[in-house]
Design a protein that fits this description.
Strand order of the largest sheet of chain A: 1-3-2
Structural class of chain B: mainly alpha
Helix content of chain B: over 70%
Number of helices of chain B: 8
Number of helices of chain A: 4
Oligomer: heterodimer
Order of helices and strands of chain A: HEHHEEH
Strand content of chain A: 5-15%
Distance between the termini of chain A: 30 Å
Structural class of chain A: mainly alpha
Number of domains of chain A: 1
Number of strands of chain A: 3
Largest sheet of chain B: none
Number of domains of chain B: 2
Strand content of chain B: under 5%
Radius of gyration of chain B: 23 Å
Number of strands of chain B: 0
Radius of gyration of chain A: 16 Å
Chain lengths: 116, 210
């Protein structure tokens, strides 16, 4: 059971970055592309915004630089890979749980159909 | 613009970031820019729109980073504060009132900033709320002093007082108080958090398998 009170709500770009990293470690450009795809083009992060978010998330210990990443062929060593921390995973779980509550309310009150 | 020139140009822009940020992210940002440039160039001509979006984004992000850096914030705050202080004929700021104003601004500024932190996660919104709260309260006090104590001789004089004080308070709230708080408290807290993380963080594989 996730305790919603223990985690604070996150902004949309932060949520999408957490979501991207939940499926595995990624570098900056992969995060940028996947965020764009996941949000269906609504969250278009450029370099400055992305690394500003990454810096804040690292300071808040939501993500960290991956030290387990093995360099694949063609990988530039300047690429940094990021992964979720346990706190980041908890925050993402709490955020998804919040969304579930909202969605179930919408379904229960038949609010969803008008958006389908 | 050729590819190499574009990368060199972007690297120069990144040199304008605060040094601490550059050390952590410059190489990775440059690499991400290369990936992004290559992707855009493979689909279409890299035009003015790409550059306007890229540079505009970097400038906004850079300003945010500079506002975070406590040393710069303190420096800017100090310069603005003393520039206002040294203005001739300031009706409210003089050698007698400056220390008490400084002290009061620090205390009220900190309180307003804490209040604003509970309302917003965005730094600029917090600062804006802090300034609005500070100015609102100050204006009420000024009105009361006009009404009850005859502190200012007219409404016009009150507005001039208000304007000068507003500049001082805004400077204090935007730069000096958060700067000091970051300088004193931020490093200690971040240091402890990193220690905790180093001791307790599971490896990435464990996190993902949970």
């Amino acid at each position: 059971m996730i305790d919603h009170q223990d985690t604070k709500q996150v902004t949309q770009p932060v949520f999408y970055i957490l979501l991207c990293l939940a499926t595995g470690e990624k570098h900056g450009y992969q995060i940028m592309r996947e965020t764009l795809d996941l949000s269906e083009g609504n969250i278009r992060m450029r370099n400055g915004t992305l690394y500003g978010c990454i810096r804040r998330m690292m300071d808040e210990l939501l993500i960290q630089e991956s030290n387990t990443h093995d360099m694949r062929d063609g990988d530039d060593e300047r690429r940094k890979y990021y992964c979720l921390t346990s706190k980041g995973q908890q925050t993402l779980d709490a955020e998804i749980a919040r969304m579930k509550v909202i969605l179930s309310y919408a379904v229960k009150n038949r609010l969803v159909s008008q958006y389908e | 613009m050729s590819e190499n020139r574009a990368f060199r140009f972007y690297a120069r822009i990144l040199n304008l970031y605060p040094r601490s940020f550059q050390l952590r992210f410059k190489a990775a940002m440059l690499q991400t820019f290369k990936d992004q440039y290559a992707y855009t160039a493979s689909r279409q001509k890299v035009g003015m729109r790409f550059w306007l979006e890229t540079i505009g984004d970097v400038i906004i992000a850079m300003i945010k980073e500079y506002l975070r850096v406590s040393t710069i914030r303190l420096l800017i705050g100090g310069i603005i504060f003393w520039a206002i202080y040294l203005l001739p004929h300031t009706p409210i700021l003089n050698i007698n009132t400056a220390p008490s104003l400084l002290f009061l601004s620090c205390i009220t500024g900190t309180l307003y900033f804490w209040w604003a932190m509970s309302l917003s996660k965005v730094l600029m919104t917090r600062l804006l709320l802090t300034i609005i709260a500070g100015l609102g309260c100050y204006f009420v006090v000024q009105l009361m002093s006009l009404q009850w104590f005859g502190y200012a001789n007219s409404f016009g004089e009150l507005l001039i007082n208000f304007g000068y004080a507003a500049m001082v308070i805004a400077t204090m709230l935007c730069f000096i108080v958060p700067g000091l708080l970051l300088e004193i408290g931020g490093r200690i807290i971040r240091g402890r958090k990193r220690e905790l993380l180093a001791n307790s963080a599971p490896s990435n594989k464990n996190v993902l398998s949970n």
